[in-house]
Amino acid sequence: MNQNERIRHLEYLVGLARNLSESLEVDAFLQLIISAACEMTGSEVASILEPAEESGQLHFLATPWFHRDLLRSVKVPIEASLAGWVFQNVKPIIVADVTAEPRHYKGVDEADGFETRSLLAAPIVYKGETLGVLEAANKAGQEHYTEEDVSLLESLAALAAIAMQNTRQMSKVKESFDEMGQLDQMKSDFIAIASHELRTPLGLILGHAASLREAVAEEQRPDVDIIVRNAMSLKEIIDNIANLDNIRRGITKFRRRLASMRRIVEEVLDSFVEEAHQKGVSMSADISSDDLIVECDA
Question: Would you state the torsion angle of the CA atoms of residues 273, 275, 281, 287, taken in this order, to the nearest 10 degrees?
Fold first, then answer.
C-alpha cells in the first residue's frame, strides 16, 4: 500500500468518524462501515454480526443489500465458526483459504449462494465488552489479506462499536423514560383514588360536626370548631395534592390569594393546644401586632 492510499484511507476514516458524530441512524452508519470495509481492504463483501440473546448464536446485523433477505434468518454458531472464534477470543483472524479451515461455517454460503474463498474478521469491542464481529471476504485479485488490512478493519470495527453502543444506550434511555411514564401514571392514579376515598368520610365528618355544633352547649362549640377547622385543613391538603398533580400535567393553574400569617398561626395553635394541655404541655404564641400578609395559592 503506497502513501497516497494510506492518506485516502485515513481521510475515509475521518469522514466516517464525522458522520458518526452527526447521525444517530445506526443501521445506515453500519452500512457505511461495511461499504468502507469492502473498499479499503479490496474485498467483495463485508458484514457485521452480533450475538442474538434468545439463541446464543450470531446473526447478521449489517450485510450488503443483495444479501439482506437471504441472510436475515441465518444464525451462525459461536462454537463452530470463524466469526464465533473471533467473538470468543477477541482477536482478528486472516484465513487465506477457507476450504482448508475446519472452523469455517458453510451454512452462510449455502443460504445465499455465495462462495467464500478468503476471510478477514475483527472483533467489535467497546470498553472490554465484545459486541460483535466485522467480516470481509474474498480479497480482490486472489490476493491474500495483510496486516495493514487487519489494522484498517480494526479501525472500522472501533467505529462500529461506538455506533452499536450508542444504540444500546439510547434503547436503555427510552426504556427508562417509558418506565418513568408508567410510574408517573401510577402516581396520578393513586392520587385520584386516594383523593376520592378520603373525600367521602371527610364529608361525613364535616356534616356530623355541623350538626353537633348546633346540639352542644355554647361552651363546647369552640371544641367542635377545632374539629371542623382540622377537617377543613385536611380537605384543603387533599385538594392541594390533587391540584398540584393537575398543575404538573397542565390541567389547572395557581389561584393566587392573600392570606394572614397571624390567622394561620392562631389556627395551628388552636388545633394543638388541647392535645398539648392533656399531655401537660403549655402552648402559647407571641404574635406581633403588625400582621404579615402573604400571597399564596387559593
Answer: -20
Burial class of residue 58 in the structure, from the number of CB atoms within 10 Å of its CB (0-12 exposed, 13-18 middle, 19+ buried): buried
Work out the average pLDDT over 185-203. 75
DSSP 153-218: HHHHHHHHHHHHHHHHHHHHHHHHHHHHHHHHHHHHHHHHHHHHHHHHHHHHHHHHHHHHHHHS-G
The pLDDT confidence band at residue 251, using thresholds 50, 70 and 90, is low
Ordered structural domains, the chain, with CATH: 3-174 (3.30.450.40), 178-297 (no CATH)
What's the chain's average pLDDT?
85
Contact residues for 159 (Cβ-Cβ < 8 A; gap 6+): 13, 16, 17, 20, 33
At 247 the pLDDT is 62
Instruction: Look at 24-28, 79-83, 170-174, 251-255 and tell me which has the smallest mean pLDDT.
Output: 251-255
**Statement: the pTM of the whole predicted model exceeds 0.85:** no
What Å distances lie between residue 124 and 17, 48, 120, 209, CA to CA?
A: 16, 9, 13, 74
Q: How far apart are CA 47 and CA 35, in angstroms?
A: 9
Dig out the grid coordinates for 166 from the structure.
450508542
- Taking the C-alpha atoms of residue 16 and residue 23, their distance in angstroms, rounded to an integer, is 10
Instruction: Say yes or no to pLDDT of 291 above 80.
Output: yes
Q: How many CB atoms lie within 10 A of CB 280?
A: 6
Largest pairwise CA distance in the chain:
111
